[in-house]
Amino acid sequence: MPSNIDLPYSNIGFIAPDILLPNKSTDMYRWATVACDQYTSDPEYWQDVENITKDADSTYKLMLPEIYLDCPDADDRIAEINQNMRNYIHKNLFVNYRRSFILTRRSTPYSPVRTGLVAALDLEQYDYHSGANALIRATEGTVPERIPPRMKIRKNAVLEMPHIMILIDDPGRTVIEPAAEALLSGNGIQPVYDTELMKNGGHLKGYLIDPSTGGELYRHIFRAMEELARSSGGFLFAVGDGNHSLASAKCHYEDLKRAGLPCRNARYAMVEIVNLHDQGILFEPIHRVLFGTAPERLTAFLQSKGCRMEPSGPAFHNLTYITESGEGRLAIPRELHRLPVGALQLLLDAYARENAECKIDYIHGADAVRKLGSIHGNVGFYLPAMDKNELFPTVSQNGALPRKTFSMGEACEKRYYMECRMIVDNEDGIV
């Protein structure tokens, strides 16, 4: 496979990569699986996915669900993933769409259609550190210890699959929406994939935009993105989902560069870009569940930090929590953090440091919080949603948000793996 980088537009951190899709004989329903960082406390979900994909070519066999990240056999799983990638390449599973974009249309049971653009971003123009002034910025605080396990997965991989979703602040709808209108205007253009998604994931279509057949539409995307970059104040791309995955890609690239190893393709990461103002972008809260604690012990700790176990006035953030005894109310002093999620996270992190047996998990969906929080030894906390229009101004002014501040939709609405891309520079190392 030829090198997959087209460099002329690297000055805005944005390129059209070579995109690999499975051939037409592939069962796309079983090929596409949800992002690995979902359902991290739901082993039944992933067992069901494993059963569905057992005898099929599937992205499930190319990724490690994070629920298994700390399992004793994680290294064996990663080795198998790397070999599966090579096997898929050697048996010519993929069709290579050179220097292309894919326009995506995703519908779910919970939100309107979401339109995105699969492209690649330049990791040289990305900085995940809080307060960075890079063109591509993180939206949440990056936890350094979460990067090495994810780098381990990428280290010997020959392919990447994006579950990273990047936001642009384009209220005039100048970049993606005109492309969607042109492709969907009844001109008979057929999608390169069109499939239902397993496990209540909705429906996904993808339309190819390449230099030969895309013509003016292909050029429009570059021109419009360049214009948006000029008006962006130096902040064009915000990581909406997949902050730690993109940070891991960055660290892997930097490691290769320092070692003097080939890293032309590793310099870029394939992502899906979505307009913040798209009707399908809905900010949902990411709730917290604390595992392995006595609720009364946690209550005593919170009260020692100035919290009240009852609704309180404007000087407090008022939240609801749940234990096996039912729901209660928690009031946290606003002076700890301007956002409820930030104030709660500070308290839970402090409590976990003093109680090593505790584990904090980040949960999508109120039903999951209710289920997990009601179990003996657990406490679940419900959090409010963030106004999406606050995202770019807040990150610009205050740096990255507290980790897991928001989620773009419910867990089943997250990106499903579909497209692949080579991240080694040639086939020489593929055996």
Verbal overview:
The protein has 431 residues and is an alpha+beta fold. It folds into two domains: 10-282 and 411-422, no CATH class; 284-408, Conserved hypothetical protein from pyrococcus furiosus pfu- 392566-001, domain 2 (2-Layer Sandwich), CATH 3.30.1760. The protein is 28% helix and 25% strand. It has eleven helices and 22 strands. The chain has helices at 28-31, 43-52, 74-90, 147-155, 176-183, 216-230, 243-258, 295-304, 340-354, 366-373, 391-398; strands spanning 14-15, 19-22, 33-34, 94-97, 101-107, 114-122, 126-127, 136-137, 159-160, 165-168, 193-197, 202-209, 237-241, 268-275, 283-291, 316-323, 326-333, 359-364, 379-382, 406-408, 416-417, 421-422. The strands form five sheets. Strands 1, 5, 6, 7, 8, 10, 11, 12, 13 and 14 form a ten-stranded mixed β-sheet that branches. Strand 11 and strand 12 form a beta hairpin. Helix 4 (147-155) crosses helix 7. The longest helix is centred in the first third of the chain and has 17 residues, at 74-90. The chain is globular and about 65 Å long. The two termini are 14 Å apart.
Give the total of domains. 2
Count of distinct strands? 22
Helix content: 25-40%
Over the alpha carbons, how many angstroms does the gyration radius reach?
A: 22 Å
The biggest sheet amounts to: 10 strands, mixed
Question: Which overall shape is indicated by the principal axes computed on the Cα atoms?
Answer: globular
Structural class: alpha+beta
CA(first)-CA(last) distance: 14 Å
Q: Ranges with pLDDT <50 over ≥5 residues?
A: 1-8
Strand coverage percent = 15-25%
Q: Helical region count?
A: 11
Average predicted confidence as pLDDT: 92
